Amino acid sequence: MLSWLARSGASAVTTALLLSGLAGGVQAKEAPPTATPALAEIWLSELPVQAQETHRLVLAGGPFPYSKDGVVFGNRERLLPRKARGFYREYTVKTPGARNRGARRLVCGGTPPTAPEVCYYTDDHYASFKRIRAEAGR
Fold it and tell me: How far is residue 137 from each of residues 81, 107, 132, measured CA to CA in Å?
């Protein structure tokens, strides 16, 4: 590329601009995504009453109605901010009329689990999340 530019009589400014454009394009392709897309937020009081109850159970440490409540959530969908394995735990939000656990969950992160740093709500089995906002700041 440089030899072609020299033979074509391109000015130093043109050469620099072309090379910087090429380098910028390569750099953009190689840079891995580092940020998680911004998530919607929801006030705790706006959640379904069943989700509010599950949140109260999380803060109290249970007892939880399902044996899988409190298990580590792996964040395989990578929709939540990346944290070390074990940071997130999931809890079932009862769905009226459902014969199984349904699709609604709370996912909370932090230690201890009874004082989570952050909680998220999903009503579509991890396809999307909303960050739960505490009422104190409202």
Answer: 22, 21, 12
In the set 41, 77, 125, 135, the catalytic residue is 125
Q: Which of 46, 55, 90, 117 is catalytic?
A: 90
Determine whether 90 is an active site residue: yes
More confident residue, 30 or 111: 111
Q: Are residues 1 and 20 in the same domain?
A: yes
55 is an active site residue: no
**Which residue range is the domain that position 55 belongs to?**
40-137
- Contact (CB, 8 A) for 57 and 50: no
105 in the same domain as 59: yes
CA dist 133 and 56 (Å) reads 14
Let me know whether 27 and 44 are in one domain: no
CB atoms closer than 10 angstroms to residue 24? 10
Give pairs for 25-31: CB < 8 Å, separation 24+.
none
Residue-wise pLDDT for 70-88, tens only, equals 999 999 999 999 999 999 9
